[in-house]
Amino acid sequence: MRLPERMIDRISLTCFGASYAVALALDCLYLRWPFRFHRLASLGFTVAGLCAQTAYLAYRQPPLVEAFGYLLFLAWILAIVHLVRVGPQHGRSISLFTLPLVMVLLLLAWLLGGPDSMRGQFFSRQHPLVNSLHVGGLIGSSITLSLGFISSCMYLARSWQLKFKHVPGWGLRLPSLETLEAVIRLSLAFTFPLMTIGLVLGVGLGAIGPLEWTGWTNSRVIATFILWVDFAVLLGLRHGLGVRGNLLAVLMIVAFGLFIVCAVLPHPVSTMYGESGVSP
């Protein structure tokens, strides 16, 4: 094994998870003591964690159809979003919402366990195009839903600040309620069609591969359909009854919780990527 591969082979979830944890701690310190060192050090640890996670994903390629790879890839995307957002206004406060979510996703992936000493592949060799579109639709909906969840948490925090007459210039500097609600609405508008695309293609893959399909009684299939119905109802409430504000934010958070349940449940399709189950 060549030296670069040997180095990458030693990278684990602990490496980039610890980097994100230190970056979050530095962001918290920046709220109390706003020194430039805290910002630069936090940025450095975030970049280091993201580079390590990128190398891990590129080398291992954990199957995205499994919960381990799915959560790890979603955490990677959100880490990139965090890195893009730390520069603009309110970016440092926003990082206090994005980094904890990244760390929770990594923790779930670690608890579920995954291949640590082997290389896999992101997509199945069977029907690669349809599989890519199926997983892409679900990943895309997961990203927009996660951004809606983050915005919803920020909306409730900003609403709490206004209710208790938060003094400007102190504590978290969050965007306005109007801006956050607009992001929540956009998240809702994009999540539902992307989820529908992923769901329809998933059903199609199950239909053309009956030997691998475990049936409609699978817990993940049932939970995913419940999540889809939940979003359909949420869209109806938003556009039909004009639901907005705190209630819309709370409903979005509930939908994200249901999504996490779906993500950690076993997939109905048995993928032959090799032996797994070793905790990283």
Would you list the SSEs in sequence order as H and E? Answer: HHHHHHHHH
Span between N and C termini?
20 Å
Binned, the helix content reads over 70%
Q: What percentage of amino acids are in beta strands? A: under 5%
Helix/strand-derived class? mainly alpha
Q: What's the total helix number?
A: 9
- Unreliable stretches (pLDDT < 50, length at least 5) are 270-280
Would you count the extended β strands for me?
0
Annotate the secondary structure layout.
Elements lengths: L2 H7 L3 H20 L3 H25 L6 H19 L5 H22 L15 H36 L13 H32 L10 H22 L4 H20 L16
Helix pairs in contact: 2-3, 2-5, 3-4, 4-5, 4-6, 6-7, 6-9, 7-8, 7-9, 8-9
Write up what this structure looks like.
- The chain is an all-alpha fold.
- Helices cover 72% and strands 0% of the residues.
- It has helices at 3-9, 13-32, 36-60, 67-85, 91-112, 128-163, 177-208, 219-240, 245-264.
- The radius of gyration is 20 Å and the shape is flat.
- The model is unreliable at 270-280 (pLDDT under 50).
Write a brief caption for the model.
With about 280 residues, this protein is mostly helical.
Keywords:
280 residues, mainly alpha, 9 helices, 0% strand, flat
